[in-house]
């Protein structure tokens, strides 16, 4: 039985919201035992979900992929409460974190979370008004004036020349990133591959794949001098599975996974690159592919502390891994 566009809170899974996209199907087996084939819950991973399963412990990686679930990383979750400087950056030095796509969504929430903890943000996006607003928000999230050295720039990551200019500006400020989070991303409007206009396909690949490569091309050389640094390339469950309606996006995220694993083999000791599936979070992007049921998912603000803990705790032992928040 196909259920088109319905959304519900599953009675079988307590608080965990379900979204049934066009391709979801519901099978009744024997009397009342039902198995949901859920495509959307993990962004496209088709999996028979038995209600008795513990979804939170489900590991998304393919065979041979190391998985780490940040769900367990709660030790420093209160780190950086603005009124408590002694707790700031607990367990680690202040880092300079470059995040692409900071004007909205996950990039913005992560930037604010890390700034609250005393880390310095270098960010980019294309919407100048949103960057201006974030600059002010970062300043008020930052504890002291000396920590308020955040740099936001209008950069289109899909353009090599724009990223090159970004790297030059960062170098002039002598603030080489310790951590890079390639979060800027785009998704195609839900459509079958043959109905996606060529320009839209290009735009998804240019942003998600070439954008990530552009950033690595211009920033890894800066990091090489210090022979240290961690690179996080935002992937997706749809970078590890297939899904109808979002083939260009899936293709771009599979490519990000391959790019990351390969670059990981090129980095010198002391550096690491990982692909990170952030989970399912209510942002403009989720709204685009899930429609109204996107609002059933966690907010970027509730996601950011967990993601920040995970990102700050990555080490060179994680090099080449495909991880999930
Ligand atoms: N939300 C989820 O549930 C989810 C799940 C799996 C993976 N992800 C991944 O997580 C990342 C963040 O997603 P999101 O949900 O936060 O998306 P979002 O809300 O749509 O935000 C996308 C961000 O990327 C920026 N951006 C897009 N194209 C850009 C370009 N060419 N140059 C520079 N910046 C650009 C946008 O800023 P401007 O428009 O100002 O340029 C915006 O800040 C993406 O890589 C996405 O694929 C998200």
Automatic annotation (TrEMBL):
Lineage: Eukaryota, Viridiplantae, Streptophyta, Embryophyta, Tracheophyta
InterPro entries, sorted: NAD(P)-bd_dom_sf (IPR036291), NADPH_pterin_aldehyde_rdct (IPR053241), Sc_DH/Rdtase_CS (IPR020904), SDR_fam (IPR002347)
Domain of life from the UniProt record: Eukaryota
Similarity comment: Belongs to the short-chain dehydrogenases/reductases (SDR) family.
Record Pfam families: adh_short
Name of the protein in question: NADPH-dependent pterin aldehyde reductase
């Amino acid at each position: 039985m196909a259920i088109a566009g319905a959304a519900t809170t599953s009675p079988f899974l307590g608080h965990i919201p379900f979204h049934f996209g066009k391709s979801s199907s519901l099978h009744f087996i024997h009397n009342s035992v039902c198995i949901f084939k859920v495509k959307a819950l993990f962004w496209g991973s088709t999996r028979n979900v038995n209600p008795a399963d513990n979804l939170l412990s489900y590991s998304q990686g393919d065979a041979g992929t190391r998985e780490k679930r940040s769900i367990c990383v709660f030790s420093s979750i209160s780190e950086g409460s603005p009124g408590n400087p002694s707790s700031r950056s607990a367990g680690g030095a202040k880092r300079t974190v470059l995040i692409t796509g900071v004007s909205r969504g996950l990039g913005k929430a992560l930037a604010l979370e890390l700034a609250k903890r005393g880390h310095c943000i270098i960010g980019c996006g294309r919407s100048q008004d949103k960057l201006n607003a974030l600059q002010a928000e970062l300043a008020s999230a930052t504890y002291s004036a000396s920590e308020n050295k955040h740099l936001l720039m209008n950069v289109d990551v899909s353009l090599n020349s724009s990223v090159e200019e970004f790297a030059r500006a960062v170098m002039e400020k002598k603030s080489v990133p310790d951590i890079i989070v390639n979060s800027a991303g785009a998704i195609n409007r839900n459509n079958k591959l043959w109905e996606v206009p060529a320009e839209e396909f290009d735009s998804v690949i240019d942003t998600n794949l070439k954008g990530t490569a552009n950033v690595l091309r211009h920033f890894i050389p800066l990091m090489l001098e210090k022979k240290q640094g961690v690179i996080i390339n935002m992937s997706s469950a749809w970078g590890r599975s297939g899904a109808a309606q979002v083939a260009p996006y899936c293709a771009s995220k599979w490519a990000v996974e391959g790019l990351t694993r390969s670059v990981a083999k090129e980095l010198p000791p002391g550096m690491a690159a990982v692909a990170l599936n952030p989970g399912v979070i209510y942002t403009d992007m989720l709204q685009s592919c899930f429609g109204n049921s996107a609002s059933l998912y966690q907010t970027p603000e509730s996601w950011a502390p967990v993601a920040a803990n995970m990102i700050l705790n990555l080490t060179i032992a994680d090099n080449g891994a495909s991880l999930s928040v």
